[in-house]
Amino acid sequence: MRLRQSWILFLLILGVHSCFCQYPRSKKIGSDSVILITVDQANNINKLYKNYNDSIVKLNDSINTKIINYERLNKTIFEKNDSIYLWKVRYDAARELTNYRTQDHEKIDKAQEIGKYILILIVVLQFSKIH
Fold it and tell me: Which tops the pLDDT comparison, 129 or 59?
């Protein structure tokens, strides 16, 4: 029984000791610190780095694609705004021309109306001189 307890105690001490001896370990060499890791840990770090780097590349590609789409949409909006502005300018010019012609016709109509009144006045004056 004692031997059994001794072995259990011995295994526990080794277990605790093996936990403290796990990698990564740091060592001081002069004023520099060096980290020691196992090959498996290095491979695992490399895999993680590659996965993270691939994710970053995919995200950058996605961002570049979205930037291209944004610029294309912005260009389309700009072209439509220009088109709308061009049609607005044409509409305003046509409206001003129509207003100008309408005002010109109104002046001609007023002149013709005044001419009719003057003609009527002349006819009335001539009839009044005949009597």
Answer: 59
